[in-house]
Amino acid sequence: MNASPSVAVVGGGFAGLEAAFTLREILGEQLRLTLITDSPYFLTRPNNIYVPFGRDPRLYVGLASPATRRGIDLRRSPLAALDTDANRIDLADRESVRYDYAVLATGAAMRPDEVPGLAEHPHTIWTPDKAKALGTALQRVAEYAHAGMEQRVLLLVPPGNLCSAPLYDFALLLEEWLRSELVRDQVQIELTTFEDRYLESFGPDLHGAARAEFAARGITAATGTAVNAVHPDHVVYADGSTRPFDLLVTFPPHVAAVAYPGLSASDRGFLKTDPATSRVMGTENVFAPGDAGDFPVKLAYLALRQADAAADEIAWRIDPTAKGDRRRLDFEVGASPLWNPGRMSVRVYMPRLFAAGRPSQTGIGGL
User: CA triplet 322, 366, 68: central angle to 5 degrees?
Assistant: First the structure.
């Protein structure tokens, strides 16, 4: 191993920044770190959910300052190609980065065109702009409701969506907001999901909790309802049934944001990984924590934990004396007491920590 081994991290999201900052925290100046991203900022995407309700959460963290603070070489360019035989990443700006270890944290993307009409008719919160547009649509719903016209808001989880939790959160936030606007009685809220149980991928404990919460709030919901097509004012399901709407909100199916030819991947492009360390199967020195990997749930808090496990593995290989036990991803979503605090840390604390160039485990006291 070189005196100064190099790690190239591709992606400036939760997993990429957590991996880079964790490696610097563990190994100090023992390694050279390069962060490759096509964006100048980190987007706290989970905070998009608050934007439609007129809240102003912290969405963006500039990457230049924390990278400089932690001695990380920041490269602003999309990835062009990955050569695992040569341990080289080629960038769209014609530069290349060589590595001893690579962390591919390029995340997931949405593919709404898998369902006819899903790209044209629903609202979503995938980007801040779309979240703002949804906020405008919600104001229109409230105006019609104030005028005495009953409104129907339909929330839709289609097949291929790998993180339904934010839509459940949105349902509860919407119900609270409508009450604050004094129009709750005029607006019907319904959620339909292809899942056989509410929040099925998040463990066995949440179905009953979601069902009870919906019942208490007067939210209609149905499982096992896979969408077949979306029209301007109604949804058609695989069983032939239909549901009308005045406003439709959905999270489309997920696919990998970046394709890596030559690496083992699922049919949706997610890299097949060792579940304990996020090492890409068939490689020795390439890791894919977060949404780029084939872990069946796409969730920011899990991305942080996967990045920690990957960074620990890389750090142990570089210097086994640098830290103690390596962490492994054994977090069971929904069943862990860390579930709710984990969601809070992602939405509130992580923008502050990342702005300081700190990983999640340092805590706010590390600022």
Answer: 80
Q: Report how far Cα 28 is from the mean position of its chain's Cα atoms.
A: 28
Superfamily of domain 112-250: FAD/NAD(P)-binding domain (3.50.50.60)
Q: How many CA atoms lie within 13 Å of 67's alpha carbon, on the beta-carbon side?
A: 22
Rounded CA-CA distance 155/190 in Å is 6
Pair 275, 293: CB distance under 8 Å: no
Q: Which CATH superfamily is domain 6-110+254-366 in?
A: FAD/NAD(P)-binding domain (3.50.50.60)
pLDDT in tens, 62-113: 999 999 999 999 999 999 999 999 999 999 999 999 999 999 999 999 999 9
Q: Using an 8 Å Cβ cutoff, are 44 and 64 in contact?
A: no
What token pair was written down for 103?
């962390």
CA distance 349 to 154: 32
Domains of the chain, by residue range, sit at: 6-110+254-366, 112-250
Rounded to whole angstroms, how far apart are CA atoms 263 and 258?
A: 12
Spatial separation of the C-alpha atoms in residues 99 and 88, rounded to whole Å: 6
pTM of the model: 0.90
Amino acid at 325: D
Joined together, the tokens standing for residue 269 give 């492009």
Residues in the chain: 367
Token pair belonging to 48: 């998009």
Q: Identify residue 201 by its one-letter amino acid code.
A: S
Calculate the alpha carbon distances from 44 to 48, 141, 300, 349 in Å: 8, 27, 9, 10
* Segment 191-239, tens digit of pLDDT: 999 999 888 877 777 888 888 999 999 999 999 999 999 999 999 999 9
The alpha carbon of 336 is separated from its chain's Cα centroid by a whole number of angstroms, namely 19
Q: Which two tokens stand for residue 40?
A: 């100048």
